[in-house]
TrEMBL record:
E.C. designation(s): 2.7.13.3
Organism: Variovorax boronicumulans
Single GO molecular function: phosphorelay sensor kinase activity
Disordered: annotated segments: 203-231
Catalytic activity: ATP + protein L-histidine = ADP + protein N-phospho-L-histidine
Record-given protein name: histidine kinase
Upper classification of the organism: Bacteria, Pseudomonadati, Pseudomonadota, Betaproteobacteria, Burkholderiales
Amino acid sequence: MQPRSAQAPQLPTEDFDRLIGAAVHDVRNSLSAIRLGIELLARRGDRQQPDAVLAHVDHAADRAIERSEELADVCRIAAGKDLVIAMQRFSLHEVVRQAIDAAEAPFAASTVFEHDRLGDGDCRGDPARIAQFLNLAFEELAGSGLPARVIVVSEVAGDLFRVAVCAGGASPESHGSDRPDTALSSVRRRLLLHGIARAHGGRAEFGGAPDGRPSIAGTFRGVRRGPPAGY
């Protein structure tokens, strides 16, 4: 009798979630230990003159923690599951303003951010995820060169809300080495952008001007999944 060909076992969704969760948990614990060590070492030195090496390691730990969170998100999407979101009432315009303030530092000093606010009232959704959506959109724009101007629109219209980011002009400068412009990086960003919008019952859209400048928009319903939001 001929032996049967080996087939990869099918992993139940619950087991898949536990495996990924355990892996991410281990990464977080290791990074937390690094962070604690950095804090202890920093206390031994002159607090008025922080060690540049410690600051670099601390920044690297922050990036690693961020990437571990994204790993968990990507795995959920790959498994056909929605991202985890924490629904609450929040001010869309304020979340967008804070995201812009945080994003200005990594961009060149010549990059100008414009924020157009449309509509009033609070939205229902996950403000941390909306901020993540904007950060990913900013990174996607910068992937093709630092834009001279970034136009950000936040719009509230009843149960729907929308954010849009567009490059208003490109600079010949390339982005920093900590964010390499690769096709894989763009795939990761777009996968997460779609996932965040979908978890809110909405959709992400990608477009571009005739000269190739990119734009990213997200429309959200403020619910956990549902029909794609129209605008």
